[in-house]
Each structure stands twice: as structure tokens, then as C-alpha cells.
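Two entries, shown back to back:
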Amino acid sequence: MKHAGQRTPHQAKAKRQAANEIARGFAQAVAAHNAGSHLQAQALCEQVLQRQPDHFNALHLLGTSKFATQQFAEAERLLKRAVALEPRSAAAHYHLALAQFALRQFNAARASCELALAVQPNFPLALNNLGNALNELDELERAVECYSRAIAYKPDYAEAFYNRGAVLSRLERFAEALVSFDRALALQPAHALALDTRGVALIELRRFDDAIESIERALAIRPNFANACVHRGRALASLGQFDRAIADYEKALSISPELEIALLGLTAAYLLTHRIADATATALRALAVAPDSAHALAIAGQCCARCGDVEGAIRHFDRALALKPNFTYLITEKIFALDAAPWAGAVEHQEVRREWWDRIGSKLAPQSPVRYPNARDPARRIVLGYVSSDFRNHSAALCFGEVLRNHDHTAFEVVCYSCSPIRDSMTEELERSADRWVDASRLSDEELAERIRADRIDILIDLSGHTAGNRLPVFARKPAPIAVSGFGSGSGTGLPTVDYLFADPVSTPPDVRHLYPERIYDLPCLITLGAPPAESRTLEPPCIAKGHVTFGVFNRIEKISANNIPVWSRILGAVPGSRLVLKNFALADPALAHQMVAKFVAHGIAADRITCLGQTTRGEHLAAYGGIDICLDPFPYNGGASTWEALHMAVPVVALLGNRSSGRAAAAILSSIGLTDWIANDEAGYVDVAVRHAAQPEQLRKLRQELADRIASSASGNTVLYTKAVEEAYRGFWKEYCGRSGAAA
């Protein structure tokens, strides 16, 4: 009789036969998997598991095959069973991590990769996937370390080079990213993602032509690569080639109609080409696709601002900043929008600038006193560096251009750092006014700072403030001994690394100066403007011939706040037969013009009393003043160049004295030439000033004939005298710097 547990030869043979059949079935599954026949491989693995449920290799292979057919949840379930059976299998942990990553379980994927690496530390695939998980979890520095370790074990690992480049780009270490992308492409030249993402890094490095070349290589490999179309559009827009950029964004949307970055790029291009209605519609599409996207909220806010809806703009910007607190461009947009907010005074303006400094600028500033090689000779020729993206046909250039033209080059060497690729007739003229001209449009902020140091600039002048195209990150790095902000925004930069701010006593009164980190230096006026040709002026008020007064507003639409329409409507109602001409490039958009007229109609003004004019040539623009009797300056965001321009064209301006620099600029200009009776302290006074002067056509005629001489004899309007005041300021700043003890700034 056989003992318990003792097998007969027949039973042993049957067991061997079953084991052989399982082995053959698994071998067939492996062969099918390797041949890409995943459904067959899965069926064979399931047959094996029916006979042996704890067959680790079959579970592992079935899970891997399920992953290959994108059955990620089933793959995860099977691979969890596999690693429970064999916790020392690095490959099983790795494949489980892949399934978890596909399911967006990034913490779980990280843990599985770490278990794989605990078993096999020199496992480059697991290191690469761990880097991917850490990237998704925003642990970017650790992700870079993982990719670098993977590359150390596998020097020909193109995907790890690509992934490292992508994360370095997220860290804004674009030059390092470029090295990784180039290495990936040396190993795998047809890596379309690497070519495209390399292009994005080149855009950030302001190497736009190189970016386009790289992205076009990606598109040659993948013609319907929607993201690459968007990125090429972005590079083209940076070069001012907006029509081509729009075509690229539209192509991307034809491929992927809900691609957020394409909608955002198209909206931005529409804004830059003054297609406000199209921009607004596209921004709404972007928000519908991504309602919680900081970028979509930001671009929608910009559209609101361009339509004069400042409250809507700030509401969008605040929501976006709650999602992305360190969004540099967004803080700048909010700063710009606050200029038009009626409730925002000097305190609010400085608070948001301090926010930019705390979140952005302070991270770039030198951590210890900087030593400069500049010779400390108070009497020598001072090297001035002017930084702007507006050395072109732009209202800002009409102001600071006069200082450039009138500089004493025996006492000052003038270096201009032009940060826009756009060149026009104004660019050519301003370049002739400089001793040295640097095309800084292709230089990153760090590269520009290094160039300024190498050029040994003594006084670096910001001409933009927080307006579009500014290079304030360069000023945060303190590349010159002295930094000044002027002629751009009287509200200042908020940067402690900017030493001085040009202002005047009216725009920046003494009781708010303690709020500014910059030291305030008073010029005769915040800005000046050169006189147009005398023959372009119309000295006779048009109301005398027409029999009715024509008011004019030749300002940006975003300066026309909700407060303006009812006040201007009251003026029109109080001056019988009067008309109002609104002129701005944005009003070429029929939808926006209709919307603007409707606002007046809602306040009881007939539509035929409102005329909207769009963009014209410079000559036509100046000629349009010939039909205006009195200009109405917007509030709380005043004109600047437009205020001077009206006065130069012999058209007086009504202004309201506001509660922040941008709301006091017009009053500062009028005060500087003695026209204080055209300044009101409140809305009722503003209406009274306009109505009173409109009723005195002979006084208007007398003033129009006097204005040119009044301006020319003033220190604010005479650009030669104004420039001398600026140069006296520079010399004083330099003498003070030279008198300080020690070599550090």
C-alpha cells in the first residue's frame, strides 16, 4: 500500500507534461508578444494562468501586454499581483510604474520606480521614468538628477537627454536645455519632439530664426504636429510677422480645434494686430476649453482691458494669479490694468509692483554688493545705456526720442539697447542719435545684463516701466552702477535695484514719495514731446466756421474708463450741438466702434454726434486735430504723449487731477505750461471747465495762437532745455556715486 503523498509514476509524468505545456504556452506567449501580436500573447498568458494562477512570468507578461494595448487599469492590477509574487523583480516594478504613470498616479509611479531601483540601482529605464514622475509632481531638480543618472548608465539614451532638456526648460535653464536637446538629436536626428521643444528653448533665448529652423525640421518629420505650428507662430510673432503667425495658429487649430496654446497664441496675435473683437471671441473659446487655466484667464483679462473693461480685466488677472503666483507677464499686465482702475491709488500701485519684486525680481538680484570696474571720475564722459522695446513708431519714442536727439555727446556717450526686432523709420532716426546701437532683441535677460556689464555702462536707463516689452529682469540683476527709470511710467518700477525715478511735483506729490523704493528726482515735467511742423497746426478753432464745438479723445481705448462716458455725455448734453471724435487704432474694428457709440447712446447722446476714427498715417493723425476744438483727457488714466500732442497742435486739453501718477500726468503737463485753469479736481469741475471754455470761442482762438510760444518758452516743452535738465540729473547721480566710499555700489 502506498504512503500518503507518494506519487505514482503516472502522476509524476502527468505533472511533468503539464509543466511542459505551461512552459510551451508561455514561450509561445513571449514569441507572440515579441512579434507584436498582443491579443494572441494575452490569450496564451491567460491559458497559462488558468492552469497556474501564481505564474509570475505570465502575470508580468500579461500586464506588460495589456499596457501595450492601452488597457492601463488592467495592466496595473496584473502587475501588482506580479510584484506581490516576486518583489525582487526590478522589471515588474518598472512596468507597474509605467501603467501607474499612464493612469496619472504619479506618486504611485514614483514609489514603484524607487522599488525597481532599490533592487537594481543601475536601471536607466527606471531612472528615466522616475524623472518623468517627479516632473509631473513638480520636483524638477530631482527629475534632472534622475535623467542625468540614467544618462551616466546609458550614454546613448536619447529619450533621457530629451526629457532632461524639457525639465531644464521648465526650470528656465534654457541654455543647458539646449545642450541636452542637441545631444538627443545627435543620437536620434528624427526626434520631432526634441526638435520642437528645442525651438521653444531657442525662443526663450530670443534666437527666433534658429527656433524657426528647428521647428520646421520637426514639421518636416510630422507635418500635422499642431504644437509645432503653434511654436513657430510664436517665433514669427516675436519677429513682428503677425500674418504668418496667425496662419500657423489657424493651421494648428484645424488639426486640433481645442488646442489651448493655439487659441492663446491666436488671441495674442489678434490683440497685437488690433483685431479686438476677434481676440475676445478667441479668448472665450480658450476659456471654454480650459476654464481654470492661468494663461487663458490672463489673455481674457487682456481682452477686457483692451475693451476698456478694467474691472473685468483685473478680476481675470487675480484669478490667474491665484493659480500661478509667479506668472511674470501676468503681474505686469495687472500693473498695466491698474492704471485705469478708478479705485487704485498710489498705495495699490506700489503694492502690486512690490509683489512683482518679491515674486520675480528679488530672485534675480545680486545677493551681495556688486563691484564695478567703471572709473570713478566725476568729471569724465558718462556712458549712458538706454533700454527699450519702443525704439520705433511708438508714442513712448515720441517722448524719450527728444532726449536722445538733444544729448551733448561731448559729455555723454549714448548707447541704445533695442529690445524689439521691429525696425522702421523712427528706428533709423533714433539709431543715428546714438553713439552705439545694440540689437538686444535676440539677447536673453542674462545675456543682455552681461553685455551691459561688458559695455561698462555707468547709468542704465529703463524707458518702459512695467509696459509691454520691458526688460525689468535685467534691471533686477543690477548690471550697472546706477539705474534710472524715466519717460515710461511715472508710477515707477518697484525695484530696489533701480536707484532713481524721473517724475515731477504734480505727478508724484510729496505725500506719496515714501511709498517708492526709487529716489524721486523732479524734472520740469514727467515727459516732453517734440513739436510737429508748424504748418500742420490749425490756429482757428473749427467751431467758429462749423457753428458747433467738437471735442476730441485721441487716446487708447483701455484708457477710456467706465467713469468717462457719463461725464463726457454730460458735457455733450450741456453744449448744444457739440460733437465728440474718438480716435484710436482699435476703433478700426467696426464691432468695437459700434460698442463704444452704444455706450454714449445709453446716456442719451444721439449716435450721429459720436465719430470713431481708426488707425491712420502719422500725417493724417496730426491733421485730424484740425477738426477738434477741445480735447478731453481720459481719467483716471490720463494721456501723456497724446496730451502733449494735442497742445502742440494748438488744441487745449481738459484734465482731471487724480490720485496716482498715471492720473496726474495731464495735470502735470498743463501745469508746466501755466494752463492750470484747464485742470479740475473732480468730475463736476471737469464738466464745468469743458463747458465754460466751449462757450468762449474767441478765448479759444487767442489760446490756440499762443500755445506754440508758451510751450517753446517752458522748461518742459522746450526739448533742448528739458534735455539739459535730464543731463544735470545724470551728472548729479554720477558725482554722488563717485563720492561714495568703497568700490561697491
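entry 2 starts here
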Amino acid sequence: MEFEALHHDATTRAGVLRLNERSMHTPGILWYASDRIDPPDDAVWLLSQNGDGSLSHAGSFFRPLPRQEPCIPPSFVYPDVLPGALHEQAAGWNSRQAGDIHVVSAKALDDVGDASMYVLANARELFSNPRRFVEAIVAVREAIGSQAVLYTPGLGRPADLAVLAYCTVDLADSVPLVESARQDMFLSVDGANPAGAYEVPPCRCPGCIDGEGFDGLLQHNYNAAMAEIRMIRHAIATGVFRSLVERRCQVSPHHLSVLRLLDAEHGRFQETRFPVQAGSFAATPLSLSRPDVERFRRRVLSRYRKPPSASMLLLLPCSMGKPYSRSRSHNRFHEAVGSCGNPYVVHRVVVTSPLGVVPIELDAVYPAAHYDISVTGRWSHDEQAMLSGMLERYLEQNHYDLVVQHLPNDIASFVDIDAVNTCRGHPTSGGSLDALTDMLREETAPYDSVSWQTRKREWTGALLRYQFGSAGLLDGMTVRGRYPRFRVFDSDVQMGMFVPERGLFSLTLDGACWLAGLDRYWVEIEDFVPLGSVFAVGVVDADPGIRCGDEVVVLHDGDIRGIGEASMNGAEMRESEKGEAVSVRHHV
């Protein structure tokens, strides 16, 4: 049994599971089959006792059944509510039965072995309690590692599949689809409803059009689950899976509890798995606690520092268009600031939800250039607390002689800072822009003039600090090009370039020497030259701080072998034996 991850997004991955020349895409569904229950025609892996490539079940400690490999081994499982000592006792017996597949209890994870697939004991019982389920999933996934496949038996309703996948579950099964059909329940991503509640079925699948009774309803439930699985895989491949999960959780308090508990209590577990790049998303109240959004806020406070030449802070509202500096409203702000006569003494910072404060130098990085939000002029208490707290911490770390807030009243009314207010009604009105220019003209006059070349170098340094935690690449270097495609040169040798499509700097082999000196974002490989990709099987070690999408340097025994983009996080590179670890851009 082999698993290979193909795409990473949010906490999970889409991949392929191979067994005996059969391949199954994940996240996926194991289809229950018996003499009375037919699986879908295109089902790949079956839960059955009939062999023929199916995944059989060898029963339990009390009722063992003949093994037909591959199979879920017999297991000794206590209810989760019983004391941990009993689970530990049972785990020893379960471990002795395990092969490629291992049944594990979340209360006994000292000896999980190195199986390819793990079956979560008491999955249904755990899932009924969001807090216990989250605790169990986090503990099990950290114990079994990122490479193993996790299966939660008895779970697999369409409404559950997205949140299960977000919880790093790779496989569900069709048992609840069959049970729901027996109970005359019509399943969808919005939940379960009695089939008789509809005068006309709200679906045009073959089961609803041509089917009748139990068989028709079962086919519908199959189709609903398969459609959701395909939607999940597509969302992962396109980098919008977290947005899909947020939408699904809006209709289920149970699922919402799972997501909120993960965000509130297991941020680190999620963040290590979140890529540094993803697709665009529409911000919701849940987006305030997105791990990638919190990572952005944390890096702004820990890595970013204001341009040294900037003496005045100008707080501006966000814009509908992204990046801000290319939007119509911010072009007007730019013109107003430019008219003051010494514009680069002024540092523009955008205030917004869910990101907090966004220095203008970072407006092309993810997620600053990739979100949209409903603008109503009403800020929730959570949004106000987030923005006020972040702005306070930002000002503690970045000193300005003067703070100017050019913010509409719905923001200015709760931002409690010592600032000059230049907004007269709407921020882009003629009166507001004139007031901004006049005030800045007077306040910037005493300062020495700052050139665009100086600011461009500082802008580039801010991007490098945000991405790598250091701006040292600029030492002795020159910056060329127009925003946002700034290029760093050593004489005529290019070291790297900011790529707005990635929202990150891409380095050349010459730039890789600098990155290697940071002792971070490194991947140690065996003795070979990576011509196109470094696969996980060739990785010896990797910086645990690497996230999927990061710029990384490929090394062997201190020698640079290449530079490229991480396709896995650092921990997964070390654990995995399948899949691409680094997409190499340049090699020696």
C-alpha cells in the first residue's frame, strides 16, 4: 500500500492511494458492498468480505473472521469514554494484529507502528462530541505522521465530508449513506431531511429521476457524496479549501464547533500544514482565525519593520481592488501624498479586516492580495479588538514622529491612538484629499527629501524580511525594476526577483548562496543533481520551518545543488517516501 500526495491546501492534501495495481484518489470513500447493497458502478475500493480487490474486515477480538488481504485487522476496542488504562491494554493486542492497516485508539498512541493506513477506533462516538473529536484527531495525526492515510469508519455523510477532510481524514465510508436511505433520509451538503418532505426532489441526479424507494434514495445519497468529494478535491487543488469548509460550517453548529475549536486551540497544528500561497477567498467572521491570516499578522509584528526613511505613518482604509496600490482609491491617495512635495517621508499602512494592518510594501503578498470582504461600515467587536490590538502592537515596534489617520468614521470611531485626522466624510472626496495633501505638505517640509530609489530599496527589504526573516540579501546589492517586479542584483548578476503571481521572491542560484547562509529554508538531499524535482525519497533532512510554497535551497553536505519551491512542509519531506518535495527552478 502506497500513498502519494499530489496537492496541498489548508490542513490537508489530495493524493492517490495505490494497492495491488488499484488506485484510489483521496480524500475518498470506501464503498460498502454486500449481497443486498450494490456499490456505485465506478467505486474503486469496496468494504466487503468478497475479496476481488476489496478491503475486507477481519472482525473483532470477540468475533474474528478469516483474513482476506488487504483487510482491516481484528481489533479490541473499548468505548472512548472508558479510562485510558483499558485502551492502553487493548492497544497492545491491536498492535500485534496490525500490518499495513492498524486500528488505533486516540487514548493509546504510544505504539502506533509504521502502518500505511490507520483506522480511528470509535470514530462515530468521537465525532458526536466536537471537542473530543478535535483532540483525538490532532493526537492521532501527530502520532501517525503526515504520510499515513487516516480512515474514520462509519462517517461519510455529504455534509460531514469537508470538515472531515479539513481534520486530515483521508477516507470515509458509505455506511451512513446506506443507513440514511434505510431511514428514508435525503442527504445533501446542507444535512439530512426526510425524503417525504419534498413534493418534488430538489435534485436531478439519476437516482432522483429514475429511481424509486430505497434504491433510488440510496443512489441519490451516493451521488451527493461523490459530488462533494469531487468538490473537495477541486478546492484543494485550486487552493480554496478553507473557504469551502467555512461555507459548509455555516449551516451546521456541530461542524462549526469543530472548526472553531481547531482555530482556537490547535493553531500550530494547522499552521504547519497551511501553504504560504493559496487562492483568493471571501472573508467571513471565521476568517479572523484562519491560520494563514494569523500567520500574516504574526509575521507583520515579528519580522516586518517600517522603512528607516519614513518619519510619518499614514493609515488608510482598504480597497475593493487588490493589490491596494493598483486600486482606483489608492491611486488617488498616492497622488494626494505625492503632491505634498516630500512623499517618501510618509509611510502608508492599510487597516483592514481580517488582516489587521498591512504595510503597503506587503500588499502583493498572500493573503493581502487575495481576499475580499463585505463592506458595510459595521465592524464586529471581534474585528475591532483584533485591529485595535494589532495596531497598538505595531506602533510599539515601529516609531513614527507623527501618525495621520485618513480613515472613515466607522474605523476612526474605535481606533484609539494619538493621530491627526484628515478624513472629511469619505476618504476619496475632494475635501478629504485636499486636507491630506495640505497637512502633509506642512508636516513633511522640515524633513530631508527621500528619493524613490531609497524607498524602493527599503520596499524590497521589507518583502525579504517578511518572507525570509532577513533583508541581508540587499547588503551591497542594487534594486532594479518597477513595482512589483523588483529585482536584486550584485553588479550585473541577478540574485532574485519578486514574483507577484507567487507573492514571494524567487531566487537564482547566486541568491541561493545567501539563503543557505541563513540556516533556514534548507533541504538536505542525497548525493545527486536535481534536474527538475527533488522527490521525498531523496530527502535526508529539511528545515522544520518550511511550509508548502516556500522558497528553499537544496543542499548536499553543504554544497548548493539547487533552488526552488517547496511542494511539502519540512516535516512531511522528512517523513515521506513518495511525492515531490521540491520543484527545482535552477540547479548546478
